TrEMBL record:
Large ribosomal subunit protein uL30-like ferredoxin-like fold domain: residues covered: 11-61
Protein's name according to its UniProt entry: Large ribosomal subunit protein uL30
The protein's assembly and partners: Part of the 50S ribosomal subunit.
Gene3D superfamilies with a match to the protein in the record: Ribosomal protein L30, ferredoxin-like fold domain
Organism name: Hydrogenophaga pseudoflava
Superkingdom in the source lineage: Bacteria
InterPro entries: Ribo_uL30_ferredoxin-like_sf (IPR036919), Ribosomal_uL30_bac-type (IPR005996), Ribosomal_uL30_ferredoxin-like (IPR016082)
Lineage per the UniProt record: Bacteria, Pseudomonadati, Pseudomonadota, Betaproteobacteria, Burkholderiales
Record's signal peptide: none
Record field: transmembrane: none
Family the entry assigns: Belongs to the universal ribosomal protein uL30 family.
GO molecular function: structural constituent of ribosome
Keywords assigned by UniProt, alphabetized: Ribonucleoprotein, Ribosomal protein
Length: 64
């Protein structure tokens, strides 16, 4: 079971700023990354698509 996690790289992101007052597409991206409340953390697979989503809302999140 543990080998599955080591073969696939993951990235942890934390919502550090409120998406209130941001573009609707940015709020949708926050939800798409699985982030709900402030300081919530989501562990995602490290794919180019996820990287692009993180770059889009880089001012709202922190990569752990």
């Amino acid at each position: 079971m543990g080998t599955i996690m080591t073969t696939q790289n993951t990235v942890k992101v934390q919502l550090v700023r409120s998406p209130i007052g941001t573009k609707q597409s940015h709020r949708d991206t926050v939800r798409g990354l699985g982030l709900r409340k402030l300081n919530s953390v989501s562990e995602l697979q490290d794919t180019p698509a996820v990287r692009g989503m993180i770059n889009k809302i880089a001012y709202l999140v922190k990569v752990l």
